[in-house]
Amino acid sequence: MIYELRDYVAVDGAADKLNRRFAEHTVELFRDNGIAVEAFWHEEGDPARISYLLSFPDAEAQERAWVSFKADPRWLRVRSETEADGPIVADIRSRTLVLAPWWTAGEGPSRHLR
């Protein structure tokens, strides 16, 4: 299993629009295209900064899912409609993560902090 951590920063004044796009369209489109959403977060006190975690069985599945999502006509329509007045995303950062070899999945952090 691999994970992808994505950080978005909305264009000034576009935080509500970006959050609505994720909530009303993007999450469902992710799932329809094989992108498993683990969770979404906002930076405390700043809804213009959104982070979310995705999971994939492997790198090949990750690549296939993104190719499918980016070509999905529903996504292309939603993106066009929500950006009709200009871009709503100022910055995107994406990192692919794998478990550290010393971490045993399912164990709480307290075991490793002793």
Could you walk me through the main structural features you see in this protein, from its secondary elements to its overall organization?
With 114 residues, this protein is an alpha+beta fold. The protein has one domain (2-100): Alpha-Beta Plaits (2-Layer Sandwich). It contains three helices and four strands. It has a four-stranded antiparallel β-sheet. Helix 1 (15-32) packs antiparallel against helix 3. The mean pLDDT is 93.
Please state the CA-atom Rg, rounded to the nearest Å: 16 Å
Q: Please give the share of residues in helix.
A: 25-40%
Spell out the helices and strands N to C.
Answer: EHEEHHE
Read across the widest sheet, the strand sequence of neighbours is 2-3-1-4
Number of strands: 4
Number of helices: 3
Domain module tally? 1
In the CATH scheme, the class would be: Alpha Beta
Regions with little confidence, pLDDT below 50 for 5+ residues:
none
State the CATH architecture. Answer: 2-Layer Sandwich
CATH-assigned fold name: Alpha-Beta Plaits
How would you classify the helix and strand content by structural class?
alpha+beta
Estimate the strand proportion.
25-35%
The major β-sheet equals: 4 strands, antiparallel
The dominant shape is globular
Mean pLDDT: 93
Query: Terminal Cα separation, in Å?
Result: 27 Å
